[in-house]
Design brief:
Elements: E1 2-14, E2 27-39, H1 51-62, E3 68-69, H2 74-77, H3 83-97, E4 103-113, E5 116-120
Helix pairs in contact: 1-3
The structure holds the ligand Nc1nc2c(c(=O)[nH]1)N=C([C@H](O)[C@H](O)COP(=O)(O)OP(=O)(O)OP(=O)(O)O)CN2 and zinc ion.
Organism: Hippea maritima (strain ATCC 700847 / DSM 10411 / MH2)
Enzyme class: lyase
Binding site for Zn(2+): 14, 27, 29
């Protein structure tokens, strides 16, 4: 198997519901997203999935979050826009985008800063 990893970023505002602390208040982050996919085949150029393609698929998903107030967006309306839930959302959207391909997402990490990240992955 091959694991291919790219990063992207977006800026967004959120507030955490049911959180006892300052993060309950409206604030923003420059989120960093790290996406990894597992691929079991190489093409004739010995590439599992082109970094360009993975970046582009990820960008399509992440651009829907960029410069938005995350609490208002459908995927987080009934939950909370934590790094955990953002990572899960990106993972699930990427899984749909890679349907019928020889690659599938293995993990998605969302960093709120260089000091803190949450990672989502599925166990078999
Ligand atoms: N597991 C999680 N914990 C926290 C999340 C989260 O999404 N998942 N989010 C927050 C807040 O969004 C908060 O803005 C970030 O918290 P923190 O990293 O503590 O932010 P600081 O910039 O204040 O960090 P310092 O290292 O203290 O400067 C909270 N927790
Ligand atoms: Zn925050």
């Amino acid at each position: 198997m091959f694991e291919i990893t790219i990063t992207d970023d977006f800026a967004a505002a959120h507030r955490l519901n049911n959180y006892n602390g300052a993060c309950e208040n409206l604030h923003g982050h420059n989120f960093i997203v790290e996406v990894s996919v597992l691929c079991d085949k190489l093409d004739k150029a010995y590439i599992a999935i082109d970094f360009k393609e993975l970046k582009s698929l990820t960008k399509e998903i992440v651009s829907k979050l960029d410069h938005r107030y995350l609490n208002e967006l459908e995927p987080f309306k009934s939950t909370n826009p934590t790094s955990e839930m953002i990572a899960k959302y990106i993972f699930e959207e990427l899984k749909k985008a890679l349907k019928d391909r020889s690659c599938k997402p293995s993990k998605v990490s969302v960093f709120e800063s260089l000091k803190a990240k949450a990672t989502y992955f599925e166990t078999q």
